[in-house]
């Protein structure tokens, strides 16, 4: 229903709607027409009070976009309906729920995707925004139809740009040349691409545009005469061969001529190929290649070809589906002329894009054909390692294949390396936010911190002041920023624990009647094979070095023979320390995802040292051998015997965490669960993994899984839990 407009405007809107149905590239069923009619009525109603800058009713815009989608791109009823609705959610009282109720999930998803693009903040630096925008369009893979409709939207905006201010004209036109024209080219929408480029040039460099346009118009008569002269003899010969064909001239786009003038540093007059001659012939699929080369043979009988300028895109089509035979010959008056030879099918693909390959004269197969094409584009967007490498590289510009683009809850766009986790995202926003991350929502759902992100995800960080990073976080992140910040935080925590450990050690040594001084600390470090006093204090602080270990040290401390022996060892260790300054505190190797401890030996071919990236190799007779990742034998072993490779890494045994499980039972007091979780969260060196509580009348049972560094810390936690009012039993599994 058309409302709130003058009778004349209503008639024009109705006329546009009828034309939309008429020009659709696909045959529309009764249901298709019903769907488009509903979308049209909804769009008219939603935009009834809106007008464009030009003063015309706003609904003319979505109708025009739908016409481009229907005719120039050749999409189906779903896309035509989506185009009619593309501004409804953003600009009107209609929300996503209402659109989904009226049109279903598919159309709603497309319209929401288009709205998401439109909502990107525009006030940022234009060039930066354009860069992000371009990348996002190339990686936003929820539905490739979003990109196609967005291109149609941009084309109509460019066609009606006159009503905008000069400043906006330049901004929109620049963005079009930078983002939309290249994408249209890569999808195979050559007509759309050329029009976008010419319109972009019209507003960014109006003087150049008008100058070239004027010169083309001035030389048109001369060009038409030349084309007739060139075609005369070929025309006759092709007719004798009983071929059904059409010869025409095609002027090069204004933008491509400008590009050639700049690149080759020549004048307009010096460009020899300002137009191309196109021969489009009728044939079936089986004979079209044979006929193309037959036409080539006839042309070269009359005109000398340039063999270096032969392009056979019939035998090897372009990655975006383009097929044709291009030759350059010396024509009349010794001028170079490009000739494009295409079948009608190839011509459709060249004009309408790759969709035409599936849809051209296929009758009932139209819908399936379109689906095939959309699936192909979708597959390309999602899988960078697909076998169609050429197509992938062309479409995705390969520049951005190592990046993903995600949204903050406010709609800001963030770029991250491919393979980044949700925790990487938190650190990319702010260090403090990363360190205080308690949980993460991706697209509204809670996910683990290690969850791998993909382009188009919207991420929300849940923070807690009580949260502290653990060493396991280092396995969750990919970015150097996140790793660096986590390591720094762990070091700070280590320093705090080391301070406590220092005081504990001072008291313990006093009890053992050993003087706390620098020499004693050094002797303790050598005894426990530690490099620094910080490592010593830290291990005492977390209980790794307990009373028994200190008593054993004290027993050996007064033994002169052992003392002398220790001195000899110390000297040797000092030398080794100087030789291996780059070594970290890594002193243990663990295997697999479970970080199991297994017997191993060091491979002599590469001699890995603590801190090296390593892998384990299961030998036949010598157990597990540890190799460096860049070992000379690495590639051979990992390719030939992948089933015998064990994931391995060096760890600092002082930082190691062990999985522990405790069962709790007692009386179900109000707030007792909160008290338990608060106690565990505020306890240092405890990383809670899972928690489950059940109540039965006035009693409760609970099971808690967490990671802890030492048994000493675990015992302390159990004692503290037992002191909570209502808890009767705390048992370790």
Largest sheet: 6 strands, mixed
Residue fraction in strands:
15-25%
Secondary-structure-derived class: alpha+beta
Termini distance?
71 Å
CATH architecture of the largest domain, by name, is Orthogonal Bundle
What top-tier CATH class of the largest domain fits best?
A: Mainly Alpha
Rg from Cα: 36 Å
What name does the CATH topology of the largest domain carry?
A: Hypothetical protein af1432
Number of contiguous helices:
30
What helical percentage do the residues reach? 40-55%
Shape: elongated
Q: What is the count of β-strands? A: 20
What value does the average pLDDT take?
Answer: 77
Describe this structure in words.
- There is one protein chain.
- The protein is α+β, with helices and mostly antiparallel strands.
- It folds into six domains: 183 residues, Orthogonal Bundle (Hypothetical protein af1432); 139 residues, Beta Polymerase, domain 2 (2-Layer Sandwich); 76 residues, Beta-grasp domain (Ubiquitin-like (UB roll)); 93 residues, no CATH class; 64 residues, no CATH class; 75 residues, Alpha-Beta Plaits, CATH 3.30.70.260.
- Helices cover 51% and strands 16% of the residues.
- The protein is built from 30 helices and 20 strands.
- α2 runs parallel beside α4, α6 packs antiparallel against α7 and α9 crosses α11.
- The radius of gyration is 36 Å and the shape is elongated.
- The chain starts with 6 loop residues before the first helix and ends with a strand.
- About 9% of the residues have low confidence.
């Amino acid at each position: 229903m058309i409302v709130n407009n003058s009778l004349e405007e209503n008639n024009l809107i109705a006329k546009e709607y009828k034309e939309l149905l008429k020009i659709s590239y696909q045959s529309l069923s009764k249901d298709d027409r019903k769907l488009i009619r509903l979308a049209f009525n909804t769009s008219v109603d939603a935009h009834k009070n809106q007008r464009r800058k030009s003063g015309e009713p706003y609904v003319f815009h979505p109708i025009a976009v739908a016409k481009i989608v229907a005719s120039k791109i050749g999409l189906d009823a779903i896309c035509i309906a989506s185009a009619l609705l593309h501004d409804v959610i953003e600009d009107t009282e209609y929300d996503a729920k209402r659109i989904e109720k009226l049109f279903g999930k598919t159309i709603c998803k497309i319209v929401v995707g288009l709205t998401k693009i439109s909502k990107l903040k525009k006030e940022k630096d234009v060039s930066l925004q354009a860069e992000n925008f371009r990348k996002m369009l190339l990686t936003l893979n929820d539905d490739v139809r979003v990109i196609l409709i967005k291109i149609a939207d941009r084309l109509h905006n460019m066609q009606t740009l006159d009503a905008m201010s000069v400043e906006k004209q330049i901004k929109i036109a620049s963005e079009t040349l930078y983002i939309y024209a290249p994408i249209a080219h890569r999808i195979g929408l050559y007509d759309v691409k050329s029009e976008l480029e010419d319109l972009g040039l019209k507003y960014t460099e109006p003087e150049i545009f008008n100058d070239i346009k004027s010169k083309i118009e001035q030389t048109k008569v001369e060009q038409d005469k030349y084309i007739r002269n060139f075609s005369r003899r070929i025309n006759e010969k092709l007719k004798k061969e009983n071929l059904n064909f059409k010869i025409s001239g095609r002027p090069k786009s204004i933008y491509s001529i400008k590009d050639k003038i700049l690149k080759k540093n020549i004048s307009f007059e010096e460009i020899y190929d300002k137009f191309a001659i196109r021969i489009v012939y009728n044939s079936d699929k089986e004979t079209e290649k044979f006929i193309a080369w037959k036409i080539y043979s006839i042309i070269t009988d009359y005109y000398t070809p340039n063999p270096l300028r032969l392009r056979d895109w019939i035998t090897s089509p372009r990655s975006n589906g383009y097929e044709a035979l291009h030759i350059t010959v010396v024509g009349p008056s010794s001028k170079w002329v490009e000739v494009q030879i295409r079948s009608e099918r190839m011509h459709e693909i060249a004009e309408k894009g790759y969709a035409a390959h599936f849809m051209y004269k296929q009758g009932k197969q139209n819908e399936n054909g379109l689906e095939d094409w959309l699936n192909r584009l979708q597959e390309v967007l999602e899988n960078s390692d697909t076998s169609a490498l050429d197509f992938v590289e062309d479409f995705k510009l390969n520049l951005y294949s190592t990046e993903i683009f995600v949204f903050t809850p406010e709609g800001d766009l963030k770029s991250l390396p491919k393979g980044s986790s949700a925790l990487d995202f938190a650190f990319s926003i702010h260090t403090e936010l990363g360190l205080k991350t308690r949980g993460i929502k991706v697209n509204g759902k809670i996910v683990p911190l290690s969850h791998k992100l993909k382009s188009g995800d919207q991420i929300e960080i849940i923070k807690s002041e009580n949260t502290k990073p653990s060493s396991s976080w280092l396995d969750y992140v990919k970015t150097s920023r996140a790793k660096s910040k986590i390591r720094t935080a762990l070091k700070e925590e280590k320093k705090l624990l080391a301070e406590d450990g220092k005081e504990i050690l001072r008291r313990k040594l006093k009890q053992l009647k050993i003087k706390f001084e620098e020499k004693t600390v050094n002797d303790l470090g050598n005894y426990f094979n530690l490099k620094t006093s910080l490592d010593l204090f830290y291990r005492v602080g977390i209980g790794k070095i307990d009373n028994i270990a200190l008593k054993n040290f004290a027993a050996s401390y007064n033994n002169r023979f052992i003392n002398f022996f220790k001195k000899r060892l110390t000297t040797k260790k000092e030398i080794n320390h100087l030789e291996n300054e780059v070594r970290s505190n890594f002193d243990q190797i663990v295997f697999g995802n479970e970080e199991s401890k297994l017997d191993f030996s060091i491979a002599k071919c590469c001699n890995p040292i603590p801190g090296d990236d390593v892998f384990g190799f299961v030998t036949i007779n010598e157990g597990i051998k540890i190799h460096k990742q860049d070992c000379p034998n690495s590639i051979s072993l990992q390719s030939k015997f992948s089933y015998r490779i064990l994931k391995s890494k060096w760890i600092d045994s002082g930082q190691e965490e062990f999985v522990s499980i405790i069962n709790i039972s007692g009386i179900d007091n109000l707030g007792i669960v909160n008290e338990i979780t608060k106690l565990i969260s505020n306890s240092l060196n405890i990383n809670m993994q899972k928690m489950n509580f059940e109540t039965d009348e006035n009693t409760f049972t609970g099971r808690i899984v967490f990671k802890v560094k030492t048994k000493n810390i675990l015992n302390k936690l159990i004692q503290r839990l037992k002191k909570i009012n209502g808890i009767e039993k705390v048992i370790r599994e």
